[in-house]
Amino acid sequence: MHSLWLTGRLLSRAIWNGFANISSAADPNINRKSEPYLVSAVCGFSKERKIQRLIKGQFGDDAWFTTRYKSADVLGVADGVGGWRAYGIDPGEFSMHLMKTCERLIKLGRFTPSNPSELLARSYYELLHHKKSILGSSTACVVVLNRENSTLYTANIGDSGYMVVRGGRVIHRSEEQQHYFNTPFQLSLPPPGYQADVLSDQPDSAITENFPVEDGDVILVATDGVFDNLPHNLLINELTKVCNYLLKEIWTNKPGIVFQVQGERNASRLQMVANSIAWMARNLSYDETFISPFAESAFANGINTIGGKPDDITVILATVAI
Fold first, then answer.
1. Range 148-157 burial, b when 16+ CB lie within 10 A, else e
2. Does residue 163 sit in helix, strand or coil?
């Protein structure tokens, strides 16, 4: 248990003041109603080992947002395609603007809670017609909880994604979209003259789903830095286990904090689990002897490799409260 506290302390130095962000979509008065809402926490790392300037909504080339508007709670992640760096283009700029535009459109009410793919399309086309060219490519995943009908609506393009866990098992998981190994579907705005040379998928290529949610459901939305480095069993274990965090109580002989992720409505406690998932993915991404999901996929495609995949990591962890 001491090691768990130390991990939290190490995390606090690196991420607590900006790398990790707690967000709750709940209004204090919502607890009196029967409609659902999301309690969420965010954590992530840039793949660069040095601590960079802290920017809310961004971890390296990854971008994210959590917001709400009237009858909808919305989560989103995007992963900028790093290959643009070779052309002098910041890969994180496109993903960040894509997510910030989504968030702004939601706050303005210019979206349909049952159609997140439309939200992605509006954001993409707004960037396309932006006065200042915002170039690059990005995967994207947007998840909307429509509180009026207790239904989750999702849109995913590429290899970021989501999973929903209920009663210790995965009941829904996004489908990965790849053109070929390590080349996901992506929204793109290439420089003039490069259109024919760059993969560019349309927003309507996003896979969409919708399904009802129940009280206590656990929702994970993440970039491929998580899914490429955390085996399914380890990830599910983190999302379903009973957590026991001692934190500072270890020095005062007070009992620790014991809770289960499913049904948890305390954003600070969810933050601990989000931190743990991100930290684990980060460590395994630099483990050169680890048989990661990415290495297994590479082997299945005829590439003999081993180890994790150093990458930017973004974790949004949420629970449904009704």
1. eebbbbbbbb
2. strand
Which residue carries 């049904």 as its tokens?
A: 263
Residue-by-residue pLDDT tens, the chain, 322 positions: 122 222 333 343 344 333 444 344 444 444 445 789 999 999 999 998 776 667 899 999 999 999 999 999 999 999 999 999 998 999 999 999 999 999 999 999 999 999 999 999 999 999 999 867 899 999 999 999 999 999 999 999 999 999 999 999 999 999 999 999 999 999 999 988 877 778 899 999 999 999 999 999 999 999 999 999 999 999 999 999 888 765 544 445 556 678 899 999 999 999 999 999 999 999 999 999 999 999 999 999 999 999 999 999 999 999 999 9
In degrees, rounded to 5, the angle at the alpha carbon of residue 154 between the alpha carbons of residues 42 and 47 is: 35
- State the Cα–Cα distance between residues 138 and 82, nearest whole angstrom: 9
Location of structure tokens 């150093």: 310
Pair of tokens at residue 293 = 């999901």
For 44, the 3-state DSSP assignment is strand
